[in-house]
Structure formats: structure tokens, C-alpha cells
Write a structure and sequence with these properties.
The structure is a single chain. This protein is mainly beta. The strands form eleven sheets. Strands 3, 4, 6, 7 and 8 form a five-stranded antiparallel sheet that branches. The protein is rod-shaped. The longest helix has 20 residues. β1 and β2 form a beta hairpin. The chain has five domains: 93 residues, Sandwich (Immunoglobulin-like), CATH 2.60.40; 83 residues, Sandwich (Immunoglobulin-like), CATH 2.60.40.10; 88 residues, Sandwich (Immunoglobulin-like); 95 residues, Immunoglobulins (Immunoglobulin-like); 91 residues, Immunoglobulin-like (Sandwich), CATH 2.60.40. Helices cover 4% and strands 50% of the residues.
Length: 496
């Protein structure tokens, strides 16, 4: 008996459930499509009591209805999700109990087909700038006002060809990884909706490109950049930013937009290279666009690694200071400048010494003034290949002896066939090369040797032939550095 009771109760519940889920005639639904939205209205024969209604939606590719909302009203507006362009959608209204647990009535379904026929609104470009860290071009734009935007399409070139796609209505920035920021590019952007209907393309927008140049071997840099036209309020001015290296100085220059977009800077020799950018600033100061970063290396200043006055001495006989100089053989140059300073005077150039491949240079300075100064300093210099900087050796100093001992010494015998003492070489103290004359005669009065050079000696020959052993006469005329003249006459003996 108890089992029969439970069976009757169970069957009653089944029948009740079927009655609750049966589509009733009390609910009548009407659906009207308005673009991608639906206006739902329905009537309920039970007008005495208020009821809670559930909105049930099923799309074409779905097997079951889903409740999207509830309402106590008899009307409802439902819009398709943004990612759907158009579809056939089925609607039902179910009447619920107050506690939402029991379905009292379900309306017949009403279906409607939707499509988006509204033209897609375009976007506007915000700016084309450069990401400072990566040095890639960065695009940004204002989103399309349409809610049904799936993404944005970017193209470049003339004609504008496919570049890339950005998905998402609010994703409005893009880094152009394939494009170098120091090259000029132009871009256009369009928005597309869920139907893949495209908006009109924006106008072309280009990036700001900065270039730097300098004449060969100079430190005068010229910066040029293209006109930037991407700002709705227009460009007010350009800000040029230059970092000078290795000295670490930063220079900035503001250039009006109506200028020729060119700046020339005269820099010091200490600047080896520079880093520069230019920024376009809008009239309303709301937008700034950065150019590429330009790094410019000036011509390397090649010069001699070393210059050295290796030896300095005073030659009494010649009345000159003799210098031996060692120069860098790896630095080819036209020549070197020799400088001299007397006592505490400034260095002045006194000679131009041509380049020698072995790096060994010699010079005899006959321009000294022992009567006026006794301390002389010498240094030698060479300019780099750009002619900008001169490298000088350290100073070499010599102190001349007292001028009280001027005069001359003449040997009275020499033997050409011997290893030593084989020439007639007079020595002098403080004479000049001017007005010098040495003549040598044999016993017959024939001149066998003559010279205007105090450093030249007689080797005992005449016209390349050895002279006979015997007594010869010499005659010397010279001028001292103090301006006085002197003459000597004497004899010498030539031995075989």
C-alpha cells in the first residue's frame, strides 16, 4: 500500500512537470529587429497578478535557449553582442514564479534575422612617433566611435599595401617592428566591424626623420628633418635636442614650424660624436611626436703618436744648434714645424722639416743670437690629417756658453791616407755663415780648394786628384755673431 502511494505521487509529479513545461497560449511574443538590436513585446492573459519574466535567447548554431535577463515588464530591448555581425536569433519569454524556481508558462518562439547595414565610422590618427627605447616607429590613433568595431587595419606605401591588423576596438597603438625609424614611412588606418565592413582610410601620416651631416674634417654639424603634418592643431615648433660626447654637454634649440627645419651648430674640437633627436610640438601643447635618434661620428683625428727631440748640442765651429729628431714613421705627413723660444720669449716657428720615411730628422739652427740670449728651447709639432689639432713634442733646452771666447782654431798638419786627422777642418766659435770664405793655395799660388760653408773640410784633393805632399797656404774670412769681421792667413802641411 505504501509503495502504491509513492508511485501515484511520482506519476503526479511527472504529469505536473509536463504541464508546467508545455507551451501555453497565455503568452504571445512579438520581435522586431532594429539593426543589431531586437525589441521584444509580449502579452499575458493573466493580467490580475504581476509576473517575473525571463528572456530566453537561442542562436542558430546553438541547441538550447539561454536566459540573458529577467524583467517584470512586458517589453525588453536586446542587442546582439558586439562580436556578432548578424544572425537568425530565436526568442522565448518564460513566466517564472516569484522565487524564480518554477516555470509557469513559456511563449511560442519568435525568430528574427539581423544584419548591420550602418556604415562603419572611421578612426583618426593621433600621432606617428618613435619609441625611444626600441627606436621603432609607434602609431597611435583615436578609436572609432562605433561599438561594433572588431579591430583596425594598417597599410603603408603608395599604393597603400597590407601591413598588419590590430584586433580590439580600444587597442589603438601599434609598434612597426619591420620599419627603421631613420627612414621615412607613411601609414593609413581603417576600422572594421563584426561584418568586416571597412571604414574609410585615414589620410597618409608620416614619421619625423632627423638627419645630421658635417663637412669632411670639420666640427660644424647641420641637422635637417622633414615636415610633420599629423597634428590636428598643427605644429607650433620643433625642439632639437643634441648630446655632445664625450664631454657630456646637452644643447637644445627651438625652431618655429615655419622655419626651413635646419639647424647648424659650430662645435669644439673635443666633440668626437653626438646623439640628437627632434620633437614636433602641437599648438595646443597636447601632442608631441619624437623623431628617430641620430648618432653622428665625426672624422677620426689621426695624428702622430710621438715626436721627440732626441739630441741637442751647440756646434762651436758652425755657430749653430744641432738637433736630432725622432718622429712617428706610421703617420705619413707632408712635414713638421720646428719652433724656437729664446730665454722667456714665446715659441715661434723657425723651420719646416719634410717627412722622412725612417723618422730621423736633423736640423742646424744658425738663427740663434748668443749676444742677446743664452737659453734656447725647441719643440717640434705636426697637425692631424684634418688640420685641426697640432701635436707637439716636449721642449728641449740648451744653454749656450759665454760669448767672450769667440775665435777660430786651424790645424797645421794632416795626412789624407790615415784613418784619423785626414782632413783640414778649421773650427770656429760664434761665427755666422754669412761672409764666410776659405781658400787654400799651393806653393805656385794655384787655388786648390774654396768653400763658403764653415762646416766643409779639405780632404787634400783637387778636382778629385790627390795633391802632392808639401806646404799649402790657407786664407779665411768670416763674420762673428756680434757683427765683427775677422781674417786669418797661415800655412799647413800635407803629408802622404
Amino acid at each position: 500500500m505504501k509503495q502504491l502511494f509513492f508511485l501515484i505521487v511520482l506519476l503526479s509529479c511527472v504529469e505536473l512537470s509536463k504541464a508546467q513545461l508545455t507551451i501555453g497560449d497565455s503568452l504571445r511574443l512579438t520581435v522586431v529587429a532594429e539593426g543589431l538590436c531586437a525589441s521584444l513585446t509580449w502579452t499575458d492573459l493573466d493580467t490580475v497578478n504581476p509576473h517575473l519574466y525571463a528572456i530566453n535567447v537561442r542562436y542558430n548554431n546553438e541547441n538550447a535557449y539561454n536566459i540573458v535577463d529577467t524583467t517584470w515588464q512586458h517589453e525588453y530591448r536586446y542587442c546582439l553582442p558586439r562580436h556578432l555581425c548578424g544572425d537568425t536569433v530565436f526568442f522565448r519569454i518564460s513566466r517564472r514564479s516569484d522565487d524564480y524556481s518554477i516555470i509557469n508558462q513559456i511563449s511560442p518562439y519568435a525568430a528574427e534575422s539581423f544584419s548591420d547595414n550602418k556604415p562603419t565610422s572611421g578612426c583618426t590618427v593621433d600621432r606617428v612617433t618613435v619609441d625611444p627605447a626600441s627606436q621603432h616607429i609607434l602609431l597611435s590613433w583615436h578609436p572609432s566611435p562605433d561599438a561594433d568595431i572588431m579591430g583596425y587595419y594598417i597599410c603603408t606605401g603608395h599604393p597603400c599595401t597590407d601591413y598588419d591588423t590590430v584586433w580590439g576596438r580600444t587597442d589603438t597603438t601599434y609598434v612597426c617592428l619591420d620599419h627603421e625609424a631613420h627612414e621615412a614611412h607613411e601609414y593609413r588606418v581603417l576600422a572594421f566591424d563584426s561584418c568586416f565592413q571597412a571604414s574609410p582610410l585615414t589620410p597618409y601620416y608620416g614619421n619625423l626623420v632627423l638627419e645630421a651631416s658635417a663637412p669632411e674634417c670639420s666640427r660644424t654639424a647641420t641637422f635637417r628633418w622633414n615636415e610633420y603634418q599629423n597634428m590636428p592643431s598643427g605644429v607650433d615648433y620643433y625642439l632639437l635636442h643634441v648630446e655632445l660626447q664625450p664631454i657630456g654637454v646637452v644643447l637644445e634649440d627651438s625652431v618655429p614650424s615655419n622655419d626651413d627645419r635646419s639647424v647648424t651648430l659650430a662645435l669644439t674640437d673635443e666633440v668626437d660624436w653626438l646623439r640628437a633627436t627632434v620633437t614636433a610640438v602641437s599648438h595646443d601643447r597636447s601632442t608631441k611626436a619624437l623623431s628617430n635618434e641620430t648618432i653622428y661620428h665625426f672624422d677620426s683625428i689621426e695624428t702622430a703618436r710621438y715626436l721627440n727631440i732626441a739630441h741637442i748640442e751647440y756646434d762651436f765651429g758652425r755657430g749653430a744648434v744641432r738637433l736630432n729628431i725622432v718622429a712617428d714613421t706610421d703617420y705619413a705627413t707632408d712635414g713638421y714645424t720646428l719652433y724656437r723660444a729664446a730665454d722667456s720669449e714665446e715659441f715661434v716657428p723657425i723651420a719646416w722639416l719634410p717627412f722622412e720615411e725612417d723618422g730621423q730628422l736633423e736640423y742646424e739652427d744658425y738663427g740663434i743670437r748668443p749676444m742677446e740670449a743664452s737659453r734656447y728651447s725647441y719643440t717640434i709639432g705636426v697637425y692631424d690629417h684634418c688640420g685641426l689639432r697640432e701635436t707637439r713634442s716636449s721642449a728641449a733646452v740648451i744653454v749656450l756658453p759665454s760669448t767672450d771666447s769667440k775665435g777660430a782654431f786651424f790645424p797645421n798638419i794632416f795626412t789624407p791616407s790615415r784613418v784619423d786627422n785626414n782632413q783640414f777642418c778649421p773650427s770656429y766659435r760664434f761665427i755666422t755663415r754669412d761672409n764666410y770664405r776659405l781658400d787654400i793655395y799651393n806653393r805656385m799660388g794655384m787655388r786648390v780648394f774654396e768653400s763658403n760653408d764653415p762646416s766643409q773640410c779639405w780632404d787634400g784633393t783637387h778636382n778629385g786628384q790627390p795633391m802632392a805632399q808639401g806646404v799649402y797656404v790657407y786664407q779665411v774670412r768670416c763674420r762673428y755673431i756680434d757683427g765683427t769681421l775677422d781674417e786669418w792667413r797661415g800655412t799647413l802641411l800635407l803629408l802622404d
